[in-house]
Amino acid sequence: MKALIVDDSRIMRNILINILKETKVDSGDIFDAPEGKAALEILNLEKIDLLLVDWNMPELNGLDLVKIVRKMDKYQNLPIIMVTSEAARYNVVEAIKAGVTDYVTKPINARIIMAKIKDYL
Q1: Residue 99, by phi and psi: left (phi above 0), alpha (psi -120 to 50) or beta?
Q2: What's the pLDDT at 119?
Q3: Of 22, 52, 90, 102, which sits with the fewest C-beta atoms within 10 Å of its C-beta?
């Protein structure tokens, strides 16, 4: 299983990487990117099985990244979990309409993230 974490915060990416390692995802199968454009490069080079994405990022934000990914044939059924500080109900609705599979608000709780991730492992 290959996972991609997209967040402009290096600290948040490291936290999520460590959580994935606890769920037995091999560290060599965890990719990370600081924003959406870099994530698209990885998505085009690798076959990613799980995407964890922040909403607010420079260059290409998470919501726009999700919309682009959902138009890619090989990622029609990719589990996408938005991990963001955007907690308003309309943000959740907008993200779901864009194609996210699940939604987690920051600050994150490792148990919640692990519970959501295990459904897709």
Answers
A1: left
A2: 80
A3: 90
User: Which 3 state secondary structure label does DSSP give 58?
Assistant: coil
With a cut of 90, say whether residue 24 has pLDDT above it.
no
Q: Is the pLDDT score of 88 beyond 90?
A: no
Domain residue ranges in the chain? 3-118
Residue partners of 117: CB distance under 8 A and separation at least 6: 19, 20, 23, 50, 81
pLDDT of residue 39: 98
CA distance 74 to 31: 18
pTM of full prediction above 0.85: yes
